[in-house]
Amino acid sequence: MKRVRWGILGSASIAKRAVIPGIKESESGEVVAIASRDLIRARQTADELGIPVAYDSYEELLADDSIDVVYIPLPNHLHKEWTIKAAAAGKHILCEKPLALNAKDAKEMVDACNKAGVLLAEAVMYRYHPRYDVIRDIISSGEIGEIRGIHGTFTFFNPMASLSNFRYKKESGGSLYDVGVYPIHAARMILGEEPKAVTVHSFFSDEHDGVDMMDTGLLEFNNGVALSFDCGMMAAGRNTLEILGTKGRIEVPSAFLTNIDKSDNIFVITMKGRDAIRKEVEVPRVNQYALQADVVSKSILNNTPLPYPAEDAVLNMKVVEACLQSAKERRRIEILEGSND
């Protein structure tokens, strides 16, 4: 099989510990270069991870004709700039979530990539795990009945990390951007529709440049169905999803982050009744970062559409943007259909 050649724009932690190893494990991709504004850091990362070429500027990597696709793990406020520059250089793009800081910027990124004829994918790795195909099949079969609600969580405790980290900068950080995007996306994916309104209550920390360190929210969908969620960078760690139906419920204990050395490939179905029936469903243990890389690489090789087009990231960003507005203004926000402003 022909292999797609990847370049990495930056040496962020997520790139080094998850995405680059995932690409290297994939069937159809190989990492051929990495760039950093610090050449020593680029070379150290290249040596650690067996990457052949290290560049001391992003521009140099984009000028490398041997590279087919770039992965962008840069801070959130740099996603738009370097996605558009990568598109202009003719590179396909996997950009870390959130794709942009707002829906308008995300739409501009999508338009630039469409104009350049390159693929743009948002790095939302969990959705490629095979358990979600199984879960959606179970829901479609009617086994748990009609969906009445979804609850999602994604929290971790790291408030003492360097305050220079972009997560704790007002221009690009906060919990909704960092982890809230996941339960929001999951509800949209499972229900196959967009929420009509959101209400979010947040803790904004002055110590962390005023970003939202904890959020609790409600997304209103059709037919009285809602997503309730909480996310945060200042709470005990968890990442869970519960889908509640009229006949039963599905619980995913490790909904977004998985460890193939643990039982993170298992989810639980509980059926209601006098004698509740509980069964564990096991799916293959996989590296979802490798699956993500293969999806992007194979779309490039086969010239086929991505299963989740970049426009999905624009829609998710509309919801995140409404959540931030609700938290700041302390009120319910209706999401206007067709608007990216």
List the helices and strands and how they pair.
Blueprint lengths: L3 E6 L3 H13 L3 E7 L3 H11 L3 E3 L2 H5 L6 E4 L6 H10 L3 E5 L6 H14 L3 E4 L7 H11 L5 E11 L17 H17 L5 E9 L5 E10 L5 E7 L1 E12 L2 E5 L13 E6 L5 E6 L5 H15 L7 H20 L3 E2 L7
Helix pairs in contact: 1-8, 4-5, 5-9, 7-9
CATH class of the largest domain: Alpha Beta
Name the helix and strand elements from N-terminus to C-terminus, one letter apiece: EHEHEHEHEHEHEHEEEEEEEHHE
CATH superfamily of the largest domain: Dihydrodipicolinate Reductase, domain 2
**What is the typical, i.e. mean, pLDDT?**
95
Apparent shape? globular
Strand fraction equals: 25-35%
Strand arrangement, largest sheet?
14-13-12-11-7-10-9-8-15
End-to-end distance? 43 Å
Structural class: alpha/beta
Number-wise, the strands total: 15
Low-pLDDT segments: none
**Number of helical runs?**
9
| CATH structural architecture of the largest domain | 2-Layer Sandwich
* Largest sheet entry: 9 strands, mixed
Helix amount: 25-40%
Number of domains: 2
Keywords: Oxidoreductase
Protein name: Gfo/Idh/MocA family protein
Organism: Metabacillus endolithicus
Family: Belongs to the Gfo/Idh/MocA family.
